[in-house]
């Protein structure tokens, strides 16, 4: 077996050497060679995203004459920034790979070699970043066939273009290059093997579950579980969490004037931030919970002073919460109600 | 029970009961008056008119119904809308509202009260909100007794969310549907509590009325099966549950299929499948319980394995059939609106026409404060009260609030379904809180006075009964209702046992300190007062505007903008009866109802392509738009423009949706062409496509003549292109405040005459025909 492997690697080596040789010996200006080389690089890389460095950039983009036979979509990556989750670099990179894979799957023939998906990593190709004039991430740039200067920013993908991830990236590409990417093919959430295992487990488990249901011993018979579930869903909804999920709102924003300060509350009624929603959802919920506690639990307590103390706390907290919500609503929406007194009273 | 029975059956308690009944009736009448009168602000502040958009269609249908009778209405094909397609009104409309108002009108006329159809339509919603609050009383009474019922009814009578859809003049489906929804739930709970087939039948009929009234009936037909399933899973199955559910599914589905707009959807779409699945499950479970009853425990164990395996096989087969059915349809058999409830991001991705409607947006937290106000604080307490103790009825209302609060989080429009649930919960919470606080005050005051007079040991029992008498009354009522109905002994026993237990618990003095109770009571009353003030304010200020007449308060007094009616009147007086008017779909219903002219698209957005065609025309340059409109026989184009007076919901602000919807069907319209760097602007930075599209030209034609600069007061900027001429359209009418502008399509010039001219020119000057302009309009 070992011999086999060695043989195989030798063969690979020879073939790659020969391909390099052919690439270097042939006319470097020839467009079709560059395209072929990109295509072969692509076939060797995962989901068709070519990893370029400074050398590759100068070879494929700078030294080649302008109208190039291909466009290149460049994803600017930086491993040192992967820890900053708010940039969503890794997520965007995955989506970028998805677009690339979809493009590969949906195109064959001549269109396939008109667009290449590439990525550049900051720590290994800083000079390319400077050439492109990129100083903020995330950044995706389309270098079209006719783009002469790399610092030309017209090919930059807007924030809004990757807001809806792969779908909007594909739209951007389709719009700019007049090529078709096609519907994004996401890998299924569960593979077939996993699904079959799960189905099998469910089938095996059903008789046992039914037996327990008939006996009345499941978690489902626990009132406290249902109660806390109901309260949680209530909290979840009045906090406007669905709004945050649908609109993909962040938990908080950075203050534009002072980057160290964080903005938790957004003024204006059409929008809310995540933390803001949870804070108000908590205020909404806590009053009812305290009221329920007083009327259901506290009445059973025998000690008068404990009752007094707890009620005092409950009343103060409740009225504070109501006041706070009214105040916040006032501030956020400019809501101001007034009672209608009889005109003779005024 | 012991405590209640030990009371002497003499006159005082009977008197108290009678007094309580009369007082409750009086309170209910007052609540009805409140519910009706709080909705009259729109009539007092404005006038007795139909509001907004959809109500105008319903009004027109009601007019037709009252004039031509029910059979004509059923077969009505309307050629005044969706030209040239037309619309089968009888088969595509939920007839509940129009039939209700038509019947009211007919009855009133029959007893010689000559009200106009419009007046009946205007006041239908307030009348039905009074009914809805009474239905809430009945429902909550079934769950937690009449005290909670009264509180919930009073809260519902003025909950802002419901007011927003049922002010006088808001003649829309929701006006009667909310009543039908609550009443159906009440009858379901009533059947569940009594096990009476009579109520089960009524329930099916109420459900039928709901199906007639509103597409939201799918909420009922999914919520009730969910509750049944919940009861089964948590071991609460009883014959009462079977009687409450099985007739509803059978009769209800048959009746629902009678409504033309639903028809076979009642058995074919996925929205209804849950009810059938649960229908099968409840039969399997009923069989299991039946076999359990006739077999010995040992035999039963053997039988269980048999039944379970057969039941599983049957379930699997049904599920497989359902899956196959569902998979064969592209959207999985679900309508777009329902799908966007399950997957909230669905609509924004795939159906711009649903996503474009503002009431389909997810709400933020201030919406809850605006729409249910302080109820949002009380609901958790109500949920907890429903769990102590948990009954079939209270588990239903808990499920109702949980489902509705989740759905309201997805679509702000469904806040309307949440409102009754929130009122019921808050009513329960308030009533419980008042019970405890007033009870402890009463107990301590009386025990203090008795302490002074007598020995305290002998009197300890009496005040306890007093303190818990409110609760005992309610317990008694519920228990009485259960006892009075014919039922097997087995059913009765579990109903009695918990009440005996709870009485024993109540024997201990459940009181809170006096002064704290008084403060808490005062705070609760303040909270209630705040709610009332908010509701009256919301009814008077926020929700009373008819949006057909606008007003604005400025330093020099009140301004009234009656441009819409002015322009519709102009259309009906100055155009031919068969002329076609094109506008964005928002104004379709109003144009047909008020101007009696044929429109291309209207608010019943059933044909996306047709709407996209109009959207495309509005986003195209003049000539292309002229061609599209001409091909649809359009004579007039109507645009709504708010730039002069600062009316924000005008066509320029809606324009991006026209582009999106148009672009969805006709790919040559691209949203990006209308945006400068992703921003929508109409000033000098606007894109040439934007500045040359029909909508821009029709809105801003001669606009610069108003102030000399062309300053748009909605967009707060000067417009980009100020001086231009129209080539294919001519202005025929602009309303007083420029809000509505009507343009006529210029007639195509006679080609033969042009050719004659050409010939003449040829003969006179000898110019070759090539240099003559091809455009026949120039």
TrEMBL record, chain A:
The chain crosses the membrane at residues 195-214, 226-246, 278-299, 306-322. Keywords: Endoplasmic reticulum, Membrane, Signal, Transmembrane, Transmembrane helix. One of its GO terms (biological process) is protein N-linked glycosylation via asparagine. Residues 1-23 form the signal peptide. GO terms for cellular component: oligosaccharyltransferase complex. Its main location: endoplasmic reticulum. It is found in: Endoplasmic reticulum membrane. InterPro entries: OligosaccharylTrfase_OST3/OST6. Belongs to the OST3/OST6 family. Subunit of the oligosaccharyl transferase (OST) complex that catalyzes the initial transfer of a defined glycan (Glc(3)Man(9)GlcNAc(2) in eukaryotes) from the lipid carrier dolichol-pyrophosphate to an asparagine residue within an Asn-X-Ser/Thr consensus motif in nascent polypeptide chains, the first step in protein N-glycosylation. N-glycosylation occurs cotranslationally and the complex associates with the Sec61 complex at the channel-forming translocon complex that mediates protein translocation across the endoplasmic reticulum (ER). All subunits are required for a maximal enzyme activity. Component of the oligosaccharyltransferase (OST) complex. This is Dolichyl-diphosphooligosaccharide--protein glycosyltransferase subunit 3B. It comes from Brassica campestris.
Automatic annotation (TrEMBL), chain B:
Residues 578-637 form the STT3/PglB/AglB core domain. Gene3D superfamilies: 3.40.50.12610. It is an enzyme of class 2 (transferase). The chain crosses the membrane at residues 18-38, 88-108, 120-139, 145-163, 175-200, 206-230, 242-267, 273-291, 303-327, 368-387, 394-412, 509-533. Residues 22-425 form the Oligosaccharyl transferase STT3 N-terminal domain. Pfam families: STT3, STT3-PglB_core. Its main location: endoplasmic reticulum. It catalyses: a di-trans,poly-cis-dolichyl diphosphooligosaccharide + L-asparaginyl-[protein] = N(4)-(oligosaccharide-(1->4)-N-acetyl-beta-D-glucosaminyl-(1->4)-N-acetyl-beta-D-glucosaminyl)-L-asparaginyl-[protein] + a di-trans,poly-cis-dolichyl diphosphate + H(+). Its EC number is 2.4.99.18. One of its GO terms (molecular function) is dolichyl-diphosphooligosaccharide-protein glycotransferase activity. It is found in: Endoplasmic reticulum membrane. InterPro entries: Oligo_trans_STT3, STT3-PglB_core, STT3_N. It is a multi-pass membrane protein. The keyword Lyase does not apply. Residues 450-499, 755-778 are annotated as: Disordered. Component of the oligosaccharyltransferase (OST) complex. Belongs to the STT3 family. PANTHER family: DOLICHYL-DIPHOSPHOOLIGOSACCHARIDE--PROTEIN GLYCOSYLTRANSFERASE SUBUNIT (PTHR13872), DOLICHYL-DIPHOSPHOOLIGOSACCHARIDE--PROTEIN GLYCOSYLTRANSFERASE SUBUNIT STT3A (PTHR13872:SF48). This is dolichyl-diphosphooligosaccharide--protein glycotransferase. The lineage of its organism: Eukaryota, Viridiplantae, Streptophyta, Embryophyta, Tracheophyta.
